[in-house]
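Ticket #4471: structure output looks truncated?

Reporter: J.K.
Steps to reproduce: submitted the chain below (270 residues) through the standard prediction queue, then opened the result file.
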Amino acid sequence: MRSPALAQVTDRFSSRITKGVFMSRPTVRLGRPYTRPALETQPLPFRMRIAKSPEDIQRVCRHRGEAYARHQPDLVQRLSLFEPEADDLRDDVVLVMAESHEDGSILGSLRLSTNINTPLRFEKEFELPQRFHQRALAEAGRMVTQNGPGGRMVVPALVKVAYEVCFRTGIDALLLIARQPIDRMYKAMQFEDIFGERVITSAQPGVPVTLFFMDTLRFEHRLREADCQIYPFLVETDHPDIDIDPDFVRERFNIPQSVRRERFADMPLA
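Returned output as attached by the reporter:
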């Protein structure tokens, strides 16, 4: 039997299908959730993949703990971030890892969860504006990267993964928090401030942060209009090293079978 929350999301998605929202459109290349074709193929010095085994998850958590220890050692001790958290082990959560081709080390990671079955932490902690009510939302949590040149390309690659996952699973918006000065990076990447420049304090990490969101249907358009530096990387480049199976992600997120489509139909045109 479906839970009330899942039934509500399923019914809303079904309504969108009835209106033709998830039907194919020839202006978008099969398999690429962008309005423009790729101009080049670029190898990455790492492979982006989903952490599936207990060993993968433990490696991600160890790297994550090391990253947080550089900036917030008190948080590492309080939350035991070297070990998997309860959210890491949920069967409807995806951990994405960037694994070095050179030595197999972890260069960065990201935890993606949705409100399909359980409200997001941000929904429970803050009163989100009305526009986010009754919407399919995802949270990008515990995003960390290695310092130095090795981790420089990981952030845009993680953002690309998050965007493509949201697009292919029918998620309306992606939410994340960032403290200073990292918040400037997300502003430059055209993430929008949910509370309009109002700094908030989240229970985790317990410091002033900005709550950002990415509107899935408008993100590519915003990047192009702003002539954003990551636009060529995100849209105009194929990255074979980004190895994320959308069918696996949809299974993990418990997206209803009736809405398993490859593309939104109301993508903004180029």
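Triage note (M.O.): checked the attachment and the full token line is present. The longest strand covers residues 106-114.
Status: closed, working as intended.
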